[in-house]
C-alpha cells in the first residue's frame, strides 16, 4: 500500500435538487476502501445534507440520508460542519443527524463524529489537506 | 392578470428567487419547490427577502419537497402556505399564466 494521504471531501450542495450530495457520499464510501485519512467538510448549502428527519416517500427519490450514519463504521469520523453556514440557514447542530463512531483504542467508546467549526477553522482544515475533492 | 412564479433553486446558492421577487407585481403568487423550499424557512439569511415579498404576493411551498429535506412546518415563515401536488396544480390553474425561474 502506498503512503496514506489526507483527503478532504468538500460538500456545498443541498440534497435531492442536484445529484452532487449523493455522488459525494458514493465516492466517500468507495474511497473508504483504500485506507486513506478521510475528512468531510459541509459548508454553504452542503449543511442541508445532514438535516435529520428526511422523508423522500412523496418525491419518488431514494432517501440516502441514513447512509451518513454508516460512515463511522468505515472509520470516517472527522465530519466538519461550518458554523456560519448553519447560522445563515437558521439551523443548529440539533437539527442535524447525531453521527457517531466507536473508538477501538478506548474500549469502543461511542464518540461524536460531527464537529461544528468556524470558517477560519475550516480554512485551516482545508490548508492541511493533501487531496481536496469538491462536490 | 395574475402570474404564478415557480422557483426551484436555493436562494443562498443562486439569485433566482431574488430576481423573481424583483419581477413580481402585486397579486402574483410564488411557489417554492425542490431546493427553493429552504427559502420558506424563518431565521435564515434569505428570510427578509421572502417576508418583504409577502407584502404584495402570496407565497406557497411544496410539502413533499419540505418533507424530503427534513424541514418541519414549524420552521416556516408565518403566512407561507404549504401545498401538496394537487394544490400546486390548483395554483397553476387559478393563475392566468406561469413563469419558471430556472
Written overview of the protein:
The complex is a heterodimer of chains A (135) and B (102). Chain A is of the alpha/beta class and 135 residues long. Chain A has a single domain (6-134), classed as DsrEFH-like (Hypothetical Protein Ychn, Chain: A, 3-Layer(aba) Sandwich), CATH 3.40.1260.10. Helices cover 21% and strands 24% of the residues of chain A. Chain A is globular, with a radius of gyration of 15 Å. The longest helix of chain B has 10 residues, at 85-94. With 102 residues, chain B is an alpha/beta fold. Chain B has a single domain, classed as Hypothetical Protein Ychn, Chain: A. Chain B has helices spanning 16-21, 47-53, 63-68, 85-94; strands at residues 3-7, 29-32, 58-62, 81-83, 97-101. The two termini of chain B are 22 Å apart. Chain B has a five-stranded parallel sheet with strand order 4-3-2-1-5.
How does the SSE layout of this entry go?
The complex is a heterodimer of chains A (135) and B (102).
Chain A: E1 6-11, H1 20-31, E2 37-42, E3 79-82, H2 83-88, E4 100-103, E5 109-112, E6 114-117, H3 119-128, E7 131-134
Parallel strand pairs in A: 1-2, 1-7, 2-3, 3-6
Antiparallel strand pairs in A: 4-5
Chain B: E1 3-7, H1 16-21, E2 29-32, H2 47-53, E3 58-62, H3 63-68, E4 81-83, H4 85-94, E5 97-101
Parallel strand pairs in B: 1-2, 1-5, 2-3, 3-4
CATH level-3 fold name of chain A: Hypothetical Protein Ychn, Chain: A
Question: Between the first and last Cα atoms of chain A, what is the distance in angstroms?
Answer: 27 Å
The DSSP helix count of chain A reads 3
Fraction of helical residues of chain A: 10-25%
Question: What is the largest interface, and how many residues per chain?
Answer: A-B, 25 and 24 residues
Q: Do you know the CATH architecture of chain A?
A: 3-Layer(aba) Sandwich
Adjacency order of strands in the biggest sheet of chain A:
6-3-2-1-7
Amino acid at each position: 500500500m502506498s503512503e496514506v494521504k489526507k483527503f478532504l471531501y468538500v460538500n456545498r450542495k443541498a440534497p435531492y435538487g442536484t445529484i452532487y450530495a449523493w455522488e459525494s457520499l458514493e465516492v466517500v464510501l468507495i474511497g473508504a476502501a483504500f485506507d486513506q485519512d478521510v475528512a468531510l467538510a459541509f459548508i454553504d448549502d452542503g449543511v442541508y445534507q445532514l438535516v435529520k428527519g428526511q422523508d423522500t416517500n412523496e418525491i419518488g427519490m431514494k432517501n440516502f440520508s441514513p447512509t451518513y450514519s454508516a460512515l463511522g463504521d468505515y472509520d470516517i469520523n472527522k465530519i466538519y460542519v461550518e458554523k456560519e453556514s448553519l447560522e445563515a440557514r437558521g439551523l443548529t447542530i440539533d437539527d442535524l443527524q447525531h453521527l457517531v463512531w466507536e473508538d477501538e483504542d478506548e474500549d469502543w467508546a461511542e464518540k461524536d463524529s460531527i464537529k461544528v467549526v468556524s470558517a477560519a477553522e475550516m480554512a485551516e482544515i482545508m490548508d492541511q489537506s493533501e487531496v481536496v475533492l469538491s462536490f | 392578470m395574475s402570474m404564478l412564479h415557480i422557483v426551484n433553486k436555493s436562494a443562498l446558492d443562486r439569485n433566482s428567487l431574488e430576481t423573481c421577487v424583483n419581477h413580481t407585481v402585486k397579486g402574483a403568487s410564488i411557489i417554492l419547490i425542490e431546493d427553493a423550499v429552504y427559502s420558506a424557512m424563518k431565521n435564515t439569511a434569505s428570510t427578509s427577502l421572502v417576508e418583504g415579498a409577502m407584502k404584495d404576493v402570496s407565497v406557497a411551498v411544496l410539502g413533499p419537497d419540505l418533507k424530503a429535506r427534513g424541514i418541519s412546518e414549524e420552521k416556516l415563515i408565518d403566512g407561507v402556505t404549504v401545498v401538496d401536488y394537487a394544490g400546486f396544480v390548483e395554483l397553476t390553474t387559478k393563475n392566468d399564466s406561469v413563469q419558471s425561474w430556472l
